Structure prediction request, 279 residues.
Amino acid sequence: MSALLTTEQLAAFARDGFVVLPAFYEPAEVEAVQRGIHSIIALLIEQHSLAIEQTDFAPETFDAGYQALIAHDRALGGVVYDAVKQIPAFIRIVASAKHEAVVRHVRGTNAPAIAAGGYGIRIDNPAEEKFRAGWHQDYPAQLRSLDGLVFWSPLLAMTDELGPVEFCIGSHKDGLAPVRERDSDNPDKTGAYGLTLADEAVRVAKYEKSAPLTEPGDLVLVDFLTLHRSGENRAARSRWSMQMRWFNFAEPTGKKLGWPGAYAAGNDLRAVHPEWVVE
Ligand SMILES: O=C(O)CCC(=O)C(=O)O
Prediction:
């Protein structure tokens, strides 16, 4: 497959630790995922006999009924979250030949790999803190290989109110940052959500920040070592976005460890990399 990133995009990725590739996905690929979400919401409204009016499918309002659903019972939001990552059209994007070609090209590898359990669709609900990702790098939360890549793509047009992801420009060049396994300010955050940078304020202050406003179909390609965090959703609607992670079987650290997964695979960071965990 031909190269999917221009020389300039490749250089921006190497310099900044992330790059936006506009209109990377076909509209039909994204719409198929949105349709899957719309029908899961419909099935739950029917299953629970709720008096929620759901409008017919349209790409801009694919999540119609979701806000009313979680207002009725927040636990149903968790059911939607677990279900949507199993939409076939989503898995087709996760495992697409285009993603494989990007990993080969960007990492110069002949051994690309999909991170099992490392893909999903985030639903960042308005004014919810518990699942908001604080400043982090993906490697400690995902493992697999140090040079892994996140493919991040929104399912609705990002606005400042929706709290777009914020990146520390060039932070990947400073390597792995030590972490604590619990966030003392947010004790209800557990697993990967509980990881906090040991020296967060000082470390993060060093970098300029960028929070790109992307559209459905755009890809943000992110290095596993780039510091980033979720913005705060101050809108009236949930922020839906796809995260799909690939890695490189040939990278020495991952290969030495046997490409373990992290929290989603039942491991914690301390078991694999005690040297990066601070008390
Ligand atoms: O979408 C977000 O809010 C954060 C996503 C993220 O941290 C990631 O994909 O690693």
